[in-house]
Amino acid sequence: MIRTRIAGIGKYLPGRVVRNDDLQTVMDTSDEWIQERTGIQERRYGTKHQETTTTMAAQAARIAIERAGITPEDIDFILFATLSPDYYFPGCGVLLQRELGITKTSVGAMDIRNQCTGFVYGLATGDQFIRSGMYRNILLVGAEMHSMGLDFTTRGRNVTVIFGDGAGAVVLQPTEEPGKGILANRLHSDGTHAEKLAFINPGAHGGYHNKYLDEPVDYGYGNETYGGIFLTDKMMEEAMTFPYMDGPFVFKMAVQKFPEVIQEVLGEAGVTAADLGMLIPHQANLRISQFVQRTLRLRDDQVWNNIQKYGNTTAASVPIALCEALEAGAIRDGDLVCLAAFGSGFTWGANLLRWG
Ligand code: ACO
Hints:
With about 350 residues, this protein is of the alpha/beta class. The protein has 3 domains: about 5-175, Thiolase/Chalcone synthase (Peroxisomal Thiolase, Chain A, domain 1); about 180-195 and about 245-305 and about 315-355, Thiolase/Chalcone synthase (Peroxisomal Thiolase, Chain A, domain 1, 3-Layer(aba) Sandwich); about 200-235, no CATH class. The protein has 11 helices and 13 strands. The strands form 4 sheets. It has a 5-stranded mixed beta sheet with strand order 1-7-6-4-5, sandwiched between helices. A 4-stranded mixed beta sheet has the order 8-13-12-11, with helices on both faces. Strand 12 (about 335-345) and strand 13 form a beta hairpin. It starts with a strand and ends with a strand. The mean pLDDT is about 95. Acetyl coenzyme *A (ACO) binds near residues 29, 158, 247 and 288.
């Protein structure tokens, strides 16, 4: 029986460390507030004009490719998960192909727009391509350069303090080793609350009085017969071009959906939370992860948390945490590993794999 294994993994965190105290110099916040609510002590920001989501992804990808014992030219499909792409289009998948110097055009490249669950969705997607026999070396990347799109004023503090930049990458390959590889995937979505955690402008919604937003919003589009306006002066003047998050609502949903979907993949594989070697939750907020840990009655050594150092890196958080746990020797051959995420959409999901 063919299953999918992670044959190589890499991560990249940019060098610039931004501590909570540093943010305090540009907005009304405090180290105490941030740590108490989120657990975050510091995060990394990429270097403007030098680094992008794609270049960070390439750094992580090169490590993953080398550890898988292959070369970039051996990659036959690229899956790229991000909410902070270099360009609105084309997606980062093709940019990564170019950055890695993959010249063959038989490689496919696809972007995944699932925010915090991008990597978990990507792993489930890659798994299908491997098991069907269509591809043998898939590069799956989660990368974000959030620092380019945040509001560094007090107005944006509830969102801005949470996010950080970084990238994680894996190479997926088939394995026939009994019991090893990806055992189960579960993916969910509920678009009912799409605007509770969203980056709405600029966008092709065209400024209609969005019935899904709590209040009608005037984006300054005017009444032109033809469109052609994507980003309006009003959006810029009134700083409408930043992410929005209803934090308490997201928190309530996350602590419910994380344990549910983890139990689903465990159940599908006929195991229990006690059997888990390691849970890698999306690093949304330390309080969320602690809640999930308590609900599933997991020991500290069964859950990996690194949000304290890197903040929430959205699509990159799961592969970065998985890579770090492996490098620390906290995951061994044969361990049962669960990856789980919840985020904007809302979407949520989990993968269960037997390491090796
Ligand atoms: N520094 C200081 N004060 C702040 C900050 C800040 N950075 N941000 C918000 N505040 C203030 C608010 O203005 C508000 O003040 P007020 O009472 O005078 O109006 C007060 O703190 C409480 O604001 P809330 O938004 O209600 O803050 P809450 O206590 O809910 O904490 C937080 C905010 C940490 C975001 C919390 O809601 C949370 O953890 N939500 C989960 C969402 C999350 O973790 N998202 C991560 C990204 S999504 C994902 O990955 C799934």
